[in-house]
Write a structure and sequence with these properties.
By secondary structure, the chain is of the alpha/beta class. It folds into 2 domains: 8-141, Rossmann fold (3-Layer(aba) Sandwich), CATH 3.40.50.2300; 153-207, Arc Repressor Mutant, subunit A (Orthogonal Bundle). 51% of the residues lie in helices and 14% in strands. The chain has 10 helices and 6 strands. The chain has a 6-stranded parallel β-sheet with strand order 2-1-3-4-5-6, sandwiched between helices. Helix 2 runs parallel beside helix 3 (68-78).
Length: 211
């Protein structure tokens, strides 16, 4: 688990050699980062992660041996705490949503700047869902045309914490409310957004620009 007193342990999964070398060059020059490894094949990286836990994975969406979406889900099965930051040339809304629904903590396009990348790494470690500026525009431009449901101020607070991956007890502590109250707010939000699971909740919240 990430400790602010130690360097960020980071793994690269990227099948384009030039992109991998660029990322390696960037990260090797950052004292706050410790590069755990870099792999061009997803299954090889998955085997590594089974015995070498890391803080952050930079994950290419298109890999030669397994899709980034499937790999994201498998990484999440191995380690529920690792932060997964998708890096892709694809700006397809369906791909972005699939990555988020399968456990990614953020999505950046490969034209992102080095500063944006490092900022995103820090933000996912702070339990935030991170979408690059271009990705945000894609999601906003192709979002739902239906009117967004009305959430109370407290429901909006709870929704933001759900998006960060917090459980009902953790939300309760964060907001100074009971676990039962946090659970009730979650149920009310899901009812208003007409969903029945967390992945669908995040998708609906993004569709309506609520997060």
């Amino acid at each position: 688990m990430y400790n602010k007193q130690t360097p960020i342990s980071l793994l690269i999964i990227e099948d384009h050699l030039l992109m991998m070398e660029g990322l390696r060059s960037l990260l090797l020059n950052r004292p706050e980062v410790e590069l755990a490894g870099s792999f061009s094949a997803g299954l090889e990286a998955l085997a590594f992660l089974e015995t070498h836990p890391v803080d952050v994975v930079l994950l290419d969406v298109n890999l030669p041996d397994i899709s980034g979406v499937a790999l994201c889900s498998k990484i999440r099965e191995i380690d529920g705490t690792v932060k997964i930051l998708a890096l892709s040339a694809s700006g397809e809304r369906s791909v972005i949503l699939q990555m988020l629904q399968n456990g990614a903590n953020g999505y950046l396009l490969k034209n992102t700047s080095s500063k944006e990348l490092m900022d995103a790494v820090q933000q996912v470690l702070e339990q935030r869902i991170v979408l690059g500026p271009d990705v945000q525009r894609i999601m906003a431009a192709s979002g739902s045309t239906a009117e967004a449901p009305r959430l109370t101020r407290r429901e909006k607070d709870v929704l933001q914490l759900i998006a960060k991956g917090l459980t009902n007890p953790e939300i309760a502590v964060q907001l100074g409310i009971s676990t039962l109250t946090a659970e009730t707010h979650r149920k009310n939000i899901m009812q208003k957004l007409k969903v029945n699971n967390a992945a669908a909740l995040i998708k609906a919240a993004i569709d309506h620009a609520l997060i």
